[in-house]
Amino acid sequence: MVDIKELRFGYTKKRTLFDHLDLDLKPGNVYGLLGKNGAGKTTLLKIISGLVFSDKGKCLVHGYHAKDRVPECLEDICFIPEEYHLPSIRIDRFVMLHGPFYKRFDHSKLDWLLKEFQLEPQQKLHQLSYGQRKKFLLAFGLATSARLLLMDEPTNGLDIPSKSQFRKVIAASVNEDQCVVISTHQVRDLQNLIDPIIIIDEGKIIFNQSIERIASVLHFDTLIDLKENMQPLYYEEGIGGFAVITPNRDEKDSRIDIELLFNGVVANAKGFNNEF
After folding, report:
1. What are the φ and ψ backbone dihedral angles of 109, each rounded to 5 degrees?
2. Is the domain defined by 27-49+70-208 classed in CATH 2.60.40.10?
3. Arithmetic mean of pLDDT, 112-126
4. CB-side exposure of 43: number of CA atoms within 13 Å?
5. How far is Cα 16 from Cα 9, in angstroms, rounded to an integer?
């Protein structure tokens, strides 16, 4: 689906963001691309979608070089940006103009998604609230049925019920032929949805593991006190105790805390990766 090898990208000759970056994305997954603001998440999505060109290396999508922007490739990619501009037209007019660019566009799926998000085809895009416009873009993107779906901070601007709706429609509408990449720094919004988890920091991929692998290798716990002989990979002190990640030597089941994992990997990437 997506094959990135030895990728290099810099905004200037003196400012390199990616250097020797490798990444392989396969269908049937909803990847969580996690990172702090400025880590390079948006730029990576733009490179994959052919909106930004790398300096060296390759980025193949569906077997095509992304930078070549081949129509047969673009009609099977949908990129939903965090920042966007929508024209002053009705929803149904927008769909009529833009839907034909996607060979798998599903109008019945769009009708269902609009109902889920409480939107009407006759509504004018410029009269919608920010959250409503975001929900329309998500509905349109999912209705394209593109085999590669890229979403940049999709939950920004959504209220709590809408975030729950978003998780519901993603789970219900994505199939095994699709590869979905969701970029976010709001980790909790995507708990129980993303798998595998990719963490990017300062232009480098510092962690890339499946939920199943994480659960088998790491143990998440909440303790009142830290024992003297305990050597956690990472811990955070909170009200009433400590949230702790340790190697899962005893193969015990635990609930993965993605936010805690993200903070731990960013703080101690080498220690975490040594466990895998």
Report:
1. -65, -40
2. no
3. 94
4. 22
5. 6
